[in-house]
Each structure stands twice: as C-alpha cells, then as structure tokens.
Amino acid sequence: MTTISRIAVALVLVASASRPLRADDAAKERQAIVEKGIAFLKQSQSPDGSWSAKRAGPGITALIVAAMVRSGVSTDDPAVAKALTYLESKVQKDGGIYEKQLANYVTSVALLALTECNKDGKYTTVIAKASKFLKELQAARDEADAKYGGVGYDGKSRPDLSNTQFFIDGLIAAGLPKDDPAIQRALKFISRCQNLPGEQNDQPFAKKASEDDKGGFTYTPIDPDDSPHKTAGGGLRSLGGMTYAGLKSFLYAGVAKDDPRVKAAIAWIRQHYTLDENPGMKQAGLYYYYHTFAKAMTALGEDPFLDAAGKKHDWKQELLTALKKRQRPDGSWINAGDKTFGEADPNLATAFAILSLSYTKAK
What we know:
Elements: H1 3-18, H2 23-44, H3 53-56, H4 59-70, H5 78-88, H6 103-116, H7 124-135, H8 161-173, H9 181-191, H10 204-207, H11 240-252, H12 260-272, H13 286-300, E1 305-306, E2 312-313, H14 315-326, H15 346-357
Antiparallel strand pairs: 1-2
C-alpha cells in the first residue's frame, strides 16, 4: 500500500470514528447499556422485592420499577412483580405510599411507577388516593407567604424546588389536569425559586442575582440568609439540576414557551449547557441532574439544542455517551462520595441512569 493510500485509509477511519452514530446503531448501543444496568439491578434486589429499603424506604424501589418498565421490562417480570407487591405493602391509610419519612418524595415517585404499570387499571384507586394525599401536603394558606404552593419532605417541612418538581411530576403522571389549582399553586412557588425578579417573583433575593445567575433556579427561596447557596451579593446561586427542574415543571404545567420565565430559563441553560457536571453542585447529584436534564429536554423538544456559543448539541447522543463512559463493568453506576443526594448507593444512581436513558430513544 502506498503512503497516499495509507493516508486515505487513515482519514476514512478518523471520519468514521467522529461521525455520529446512525439511529439504529445508537438504539442498539443504548439497549445494550440499559440491559446491562437492569441485569445489575435484578441481582441487587432484596428478597422482599425492594432495593435499598433500609436506607430509603420504598423510594428507590419505585424509581427502579419506573426505570425498568419504561425500558421495556414487563410488569410480569419476576423482579418487577415482586417490587410492585412490595410497593403495594407500603400504601398507608392516608393514601400515601411511604414508610416513615420523605412522604412527598416517595409517594410522588411511587405514582410515576404505578402509572407506568397501570395498563389494566389495577392501580387506579391507589393512584387516586395517593394524588389526594399529595395535595394535602402542599402549603396553600397565604399567597403572600413564600412557602405558598410549595411542598417539602412532608406536610410540615420547609418547601423546596426538588420536592415540588416531583410533586408536579407525580400528579401530572396520575392524570391531574394542568389547570388544577394544586398545579397552579405549585407554579407560584416554582416561579419564586427563579432568579427572575418581577411580577412572578417578589422575593428580595431575585433582585440581587448576578448576571451569571439570572434566569436560573435555586433550591428554595425560604430563609435565604441561611442558605448554602447564598452569593456574595446577597442573592442565591442558580443550580443546574434545579433549573432543569423549573423549566420542566413549567412545560409540564402548560406554561407557554414564549413566557418570560421559560425564555429566561432556556437562556440560562444555553449559557451553562454541560453533561460533565451538575452546574453549581459540581459532581454532587450528577445522576439526579441527568434524569432531570433528560425530562426537561424532552419536554422542550429542541433537538439539536443550540448553546449560547452557537454550537448544536445532539443531546440524546451526548447523554448516552456520558452515561456509557460512567457505567461500571458490573452494569451499575455510582457517584462515589456523594452524600448530598445519596448517589453513592449504586441502586439509586443506576435507577436515575436508566430512567435518563429512557428519554434518549429516537422518535
């Protein structure tokens, strides 16, 4: 082979390596990654059908059920069937689905799981009662109060955006209409978490937002002086996971894409687009971030996504690549050292990873 031929072959190989995967190749790659992750989860399942129940009650189990079923695993599969039986055992008299703590989080993600598995109407009554229970956890007394419309870990704790976004996810999945008063109240709280002063956010911290934080969302507007996200200028830092959570919640609840709140959130995301970290939190909550990113991007429907520098991103392929390189040989994912979000537990990180991948399917 001549030198010129060798160069030509090398150039072809380089071009092939850099060329985006075809849709069918990407689908096969995604399926292989997902199947490997599900195999890990099946072997890590406890005899009672749960995952990580001693640490997190039924919450992680619900996430895993949703992840498996969204990925094509049948509800008749032994692992899913056992997990559903376990979740059914955690239905409380008040309608909630939880054990001792995190009633909102766990009931909300249980709704995500049960609605995925309710093809024959088996869980319709349970879903209705759980939805009613969630509504009762919402702070809804005084609209002037920053807590108004928000939801915390239970009906007594301080509201935050993370809990409130799962609250909306669960209720929308359960079939609650977008104009339901509970959803509209939640939007009021979510608007108050955005670094966007004006009619929708009357909180003082929003007026102190830096240029870098404007349009993004913070964890909670409550007690900003004690917040770990307080900035030197007296504002509150915008966070990646929370900004995608805010955007997703707006879109799920029917807020128009030309609404100033939505446009400001998208503008912040264009400036901070990344899959290397959870902006504002570095590696903490990385898989939580991936999951929220995937759901928000799907709801937005901009594919490819254009960042502030004008670069186009095939976000589905980029997310697939990010998760592929982080998957461990046993099929799991883990965020070692993450104490804030609990992703040092491979069951939780793997649940979020597989859920994230379920949104990377081609249309």
